[in-house]
Amino acid sequence: MARRRQWARRFGRWAVNAATVASAVLCLAVGALWGRSYWRADVASLDLGPRHVAFNSYAGSAALAWGETAEPRWGASHQTLRPRASERALANLITFDVMRDATSVALVFPARVAAVVAAALPVARVRRAVRRRRSDLAGRCPACRYDLRATPARCPECGWTGHRSGRNRSGEVGRDRPSTKRPRSAKRHGVD
Fold first, then answer.
1. Can you say whether the dihedral through the CA atoms of 7, 143, 174, 154 is positive or negative?
2. Rounded CA separation 53/65 (Å)
3. Least confident among 57-61, 124-128, 179-183
4. Which among 14, 63, 148, 160 could bridge 143 via Cys, Cβ 3.0 to 4.6 Å?
């Protein structure tokens, strides 16, 4: 049972790490597309028989459209256009909108909103790492997180023998090797 929990915990960490990386890449891609949309308009579409999916970006906005086509086609296409100056001027006025017609639906939204949503998970993970690092610097053992205020030179829980800065006696970051010497009291009493 303990092995299952350990495996589940590892898999959970792996899944969250993978989601964080994917979210960070998506955030960077949407941010680049958002900046590019003021100079170039991109239209990418995917035809899946009678179904049609398209993604458009121009003048700071993005649109996701889906629906049915009159003539079934298969394939993908990409087109780059140059937006007019009047469209660039309207960029700040674009808000959320849903457009519908008889065969399709389009969801229009500001690209900056998509970038912020995609950045939420990486920002939360970085914030958590910074908080953890601060608590490490606040007198906790970097190896086991035991409170070292009473014994700053050595951790009584795991044996880490560094300083609060995280440097050990030789000046390297990390933990010293545990001592192989027995305490004097153990030698006197013949305890092994």
1. negative
2. 6
3. 179-183
4. 160
Side chain identity, residue 44? A
Q: For the purposes of burial, counting CB atoms within 10 Å of the CB of 111, is it exposed (0-12), middle (13-18) or buried (19 or more)? A: buried
d(CA 55, CA 107): 10
Position 178 confidence tier, pLDDT thresholds 50, 70, 90? very low
- Yes or no: say if 125 and 131 are a contact pair by the CB < 8 Å rule: no
Angle in degrees, CA 54, 57, 63, rounded to 5: 50
Q: How crowded is residue 126: how many other Cβ atoms within 10 Å of its Cβ?
A: 12
pTM: 0.58
Would you tell me how many other CB atoms lie within 10 Å of the CB of residue 155? 21
109-117: long-range contacts (C-beta < 8 A, 24 or more apart)?
109/61, 109/62, 109/63, 110/60, 110/61, 110/62, 111/30, 111/33, 111/34, 111/37, 111/57, 111/60, 111/61, 111/62, 112/34, 112/60, 114/30, 114/34, 114/62, 115/27, 115/30, 115/31, 115/34
